[in-house]
Amino acid sequence: SAEELDHRIRAAKAELGDRAVVLGHFYQRDEVIQYADYVGDSFQLANAAKARTEAEAIIFCGVHFMAETADLLSGPDQAVILPNLAAGCSMADMADIDQVEECWEQLMEVYGGEVPGADGRLPVIPVTYMNSSAAIKGFVGRHGGIVCTSSNASTVLEWAFERGQRVLFFPDQHLGRNTAKAMGISLEEMPMWNPRQVLGGNDEQTLQDAKVVLWHGFCSVHKRFTTAQIEQARTEHPGVRVIVHPECPMPVVDAADESGSTDYIRKAIEGATEPTTFAIGTEINLVQRLAAQHPEHTIFCLDPVVCPCSTMYRIHPGYLAWALESLLAGEVINRITVGEDVAQPARLALERMLAAKP
Ligand code: 13P
Ligand code: SF4
Q1: pLDDT, tens digit, for every residue of 52-85?
Q2: Each residue of 169-201: pLDDT tens digit?
Q3: For residue range 114-150, what is the model confidence (pLDDT) as tens digits?
Q4: Has UniProt tagged this entry with the keyword Iron-sulfur (predicted)?
Q5: In the listed set 301, 319, 348, which residue is the last one of a domain according to the structure?
Q6: Is the CB of 247 within 6 Å of ligand 1?
């Protein structure tokens, strides 16, 4: 029963004390979040993993790429545990390392290799969204590139343009497009790369003129949000404040009042001093939690059909109990480790992000 499970988790956590730390992403359900020692967005959780040097195990209630990142940034003797190994991310899976390497080879032919131009900048800098495999982060690190999250994407793109004439951005086309557009880059300068076509489906001139080459990936949760939902919210709730995550399609971000990472959304609501109606375009577990925490405001999800991230949802309290009790029994289950050949360049790409200041 849920009660029994709750008792087991609390007992195991108490007995483990500082030996284990539980990290929870904002999109985790409340049944899991209640046990998290630290809750945050993907950037904050990466920093938390880096800071938790005393714990022997980091139990990551989130998805696979986040656990990999925690392994890259945590101490060498710390074990990172993903309670359910099936908790992946469909967007991260859309950038396959073989396809990315093939893309890079074709781009290098068009751009004449990794040779700086007259202005000292390389022809293209690869930038990967945190939501990607460690292999992709390693690729980026090996080619002078950097990682970004939804909370620092414009800072990171500026970093990249100081070093490169162009950016290859993956996997999320929407975050790439929304961020580049806000920097004044035109849609014509942002061709999309379809890995199933030669030159990604572009001609050479388009790639030469490009500022940002966008990979074709997307988030299946955030692509559901529409401008029609925003129009409806504005009709039904005059004065509503619409905030969406930048993984939403460009027309949705343009129609919203604001866009930002999960933590941006949380802070915007916490910072509102007057009772406000908020229509939010992001994962339902976060929206419902914020609504419960802020009865002084009216907070609802733009999508009337409840849309949890199905892979985040795969972390069930039962798996958390299993991970904690195994640790007590001296066994580490579901450990996520990144091989050293990939880890070194991937860490480099992550450290560049952590060092890039807005
Ligand atoms: P944040 O970087 O805002 O935490 O988002 C992570 C994510 O997976 C969004 O879909
Ligand atoms: Fe991946 Fe989207 Fe789920 Fe985030 S919400 S973990 S991007 S599928």
Answers
A1: 778 999 999 999 999 999 999 998 899 999 999 9
A2: 999 999 999 999 999 999 999 999 999 999 999
A3: 999 999 999 999 999 999 999 999 999 999 999 999 9
A4: yes
A5: 301
A6: yes
**How many domains is the chain partitioned into structurally?**
3
Domain range enclosing 65: 2-88+311-338
Task: From 184, 218, 252, give the residue that closes a domain.
Answer: 218
Strand duo 125-129 + 167-170: pairing: parallel
Check if 152 has its Cβ closer than 6 Å to any atom of ligand 1: no
- Compute, in angstroms, the gap from residue 66 CA to the centroid of ligand 1: 10
Q: What is the mean pLDDT of the chain?
A: 96
Q: Please give the backbone phi and psi of residue 103, each rounded to the nearest 5 degrees, phi first.
A: -60, -45
- 43 and 72 together in one domain: yes
Spell out the alpha helix ranges (H) of 272-331: 284-293, 317-328
CB 245 within 8 A of CB 265: yes
Question: 213 with 269, same domain?
Answer: no
**Any ligand 2 atom below 6 A from CB of 315:** no
* Distance from the alpha carbon of residue 111 to the mean position of ligand 1, in angstroms: 32
Beta strands at 79-81 and 125-129: parallel, antiparallel or unpaired: unpaired
> Do 96 and 213 fall within a single domain?
yes
- Residues 74 and 125 placed together within one structural domain of the fold: no
Q: What's the 106 CA to ligand 1 centre distance in angstroms?
A: 30
Ligand 2 centroid from CA 305, angstroms:
17
pLDDT of residue 1: 86
Q: Which atom of ligand 2 is nearest to the CA of 222?
A: 2
Instruction: Measure the CA–CA gap between 83 and 246, rounded to whole angstroms.
Output: 28
- Do the domain assignments include residue 306? no
Residue 128 marked ligand-binding: no
Q: Which ipTM score applies to this complex?
A: 0.96
